[in-house]
Write a structure and sequence with these properties.
- There is one protein chain.
- The chain is α+β, with helices and mostly antiparallel strands.
- The chain has one domain.
- The chain has helices spanning 15-21, 24-28, 31-43, 97-103, and strands at 72-75, 92-95.
- Strands 1-2 form a two-stranded antiparallel ribbon.
- 15% of the residues are buried.
């Protein structure tokens, strides 16, 4: 796995306070998040925990168990609900992109690609 080149840390942030203000983008672009993300992926050996059958959120369940590489890290309890758990490694789980979309219920918002309709020529 290629390790992401990190930015130098310039300022200390109180992430609990920053996330409470709504600065989640600032958190997800921080070096602290990069380090935590790497640690979680290493802990789970870059394997999607949803498709391996080791974790589910109680609502969504996988149809088949298959080995899938994890590329994303998901907060089990959302950081908007509990900003104090933003940097807690026990609150994070490794997921593949597809599993993350299923857990976040974003898959239902995908639209089918539109076909170009052939229209009659009108003179």
């Amino acid at each position: 796995m290629i390790i992401k080149k990190r930015r130098k840390r310039r300022k200390f942030y109180n992430w609990q306070e920053e996330i409470s203000k709504g600065n989640t983008d600032k958190f997800y672009n921080s070096t602290d998040w990069d380090k935590l993300r790497e640690d979680v992926l290493n802990r789970d050996k870059n394997e999607c925990q949803f498709f391996s059958g080791k974790w589910n959120d109680g609502i969504h369940k996988t149809n088949e168990i298959k080995p899938v590489r994890a590329t994303m890290v998901h907060h089990i309890i959302s950081i908007k609900e509990r900003p104090d758990l933003a940097l807690d490694i026990n609150n994070c789980i490794s997921l593949s992109f597809e599993a993350h979309e299923i857990i976040e219920d974003r898959k239902r918002f995908r639209y089918k690609k539109r076909r170009n309709q052939i229209t009659k020529e009108q003179w």
